[in-house]
Amino acid sequence: MFELNWKPLRSFVTAGLLAAVAGAAVLPADSAWAQVRTLPDFTDLVEQVGPSVVNIRTLEKAKAAVSGGVDEQMLEFFRRFGIPVPPNMPRTPRAERGQPQPDEEQPRGVGSGFILTADGFVMTNAHVVEGADEVIVTLPDKREFKAKIIGTDKRSDVAVVKIDAIGLPAVKIGDVNRLKVGEWVMAIGSPFGLDNTVTAGIVSAKQRDTGDYLPFIQTDVAINPGNSGGPLINMRGEVVGINSQIYSRSGGFQGISFAIPIDEAARVSDQLRVSGKVTRGRIGVQIESVTKEVAESIGLGKPQGALVRGVEGGAPAEKAGMEAGDIITKFDGKLIEKSSDLPRLVGNVKPGTKSVVTVFRRGASKDLTVIIAEVEPEKPVRKASAPEPKAPVAGPAQVLGLVVSELSDAQKKEIKIKGGVKVDAAEGAAARAGLREGDVIVSVANVEVSTVKEFEAAVVKADKTKAINVLFRRGEWAQYALIRPIR
What we know:
- The strands form five sheets. The chain has a six-stranded antiparallel beta barrel. Strands 8-9-10-13-12-11 form a six-stranded antiparallel barrel. Strands 15, 16, 17, 18, 19 and 20 form a six-stranded antiparallel β-sheet that branches.
- It folds into four domains: about 50-85 and about 95-160, Thrombin, subunit H; about 170-275, Thrombin, subunit H, CATH 2.40.10.10; about 280-375, Roll (Pdz3 Domain), CATH 2.30.42.10; about 395-485, PDZ domain (Pdz3 Domain, Roll), CATH 2.30.42.
- It is an alpha+beta fold.
- It is elongated.
- It has helices at about 5-25, 30-35, 45-50, 70-80, 95, 125-130, 260-275, 290-300, 315-320, 340-345, 410-415, 430, 450-460, and strands at about 55-60, 105-115, 120-125, 135-140, 145-155, 160, 170-175, 185-190, 195-210, 215-220, 230-235, 240-245, 255-260, 280, 285-290, 305-310, 325-330, 335, 355-360, 365-370, 375, 400-405, 420-425, 440-445, 445-450, 470-475, 475-485.
């Protein structure tokens, strides 16, 4: 009968284990073992930055009549974070105390902030303090101060308040340009009123366009209502952003949060501290994104830049010769990758400054010099009066599903246009492309048209095996349509 001798095998296994342990001691620095040993420890950062993070409470004076239920400020608080208002939401304590008297101060909201300077300037979100009658700042050492609102800027959602204190621990401002996707970051704030709460994660994306004025830093750091206005901190203990928004369908954190880049916020705060308001530049254009189809059809190549839909009368853009339908590709030599880049670049320029705007117009680039104006309150768009009736002219336009007619001089003057043809009917391909009666076509396949004859010549010459780009005006707005001819 075969009999196994276990002693040599046991010696062999023991030797192998010892070798493995010895090998583990000399694993390369980028190995999994090394990564485990170098996971970040945030304790030093919390001790370093924690004393600079404050809790912000806001109060408002009660109105003479209170209807019960959730007040408008609370509803705004829920809307800001995408939180659905519960159908059976409990009433606020004021309902239990009975109707408050006029001028009685009631709790309004809670948020976070951080100390900018040792003499008491504090940065937070504009939506945290907006509409408040009183702002209370609580330091980590539990000292409370009534704060004065120095200034707020809704467009960037940045606010600066001031407390009467000296010798405060101010934060260090970091360089957003050094921030990398995948880098560890930390947040300190007061989610749901829980002071000095620390959460951490990584940078998920930079330059995230959410439709607002600023490109946000996206992270997976746990941010909840109450974190608003608190700092986003890198591993060097520097503030790189202000936690501002979350993406949520449930009202709670779902792994996506957004922070205002600190370089943009610092520019705003500097102006607020000096003058209490923010001055931004403008050139007076309405813009939209350039689609891939439009870019290819007009010869731009790739979808970049900002499509000018309209030019405000008397604005710097009009004085510089900019036209509806132009695509702005550069501003002061800086490439416009997407339309949202333009307002930020123009807004950062001091009014009165001369800037060079590069536009792409009918297949060629052109530089225009504009003198930057100051941002004013938005004006309502003036509707053009109904054009005078004119006998329609048919012909090659029918290939596109269009019936067009000439514009009178009065009509051209009314809508501030040098030439073009009026759409009297749009069917088939033109209707599918979005054209409709009353639109004014100003170019076809990159060819400017001022009369029906020029329009027909451009249609005849256009390559009808491909979609034909048509630039048209609707009221004061211009946009492109891609018409696929009837064959």
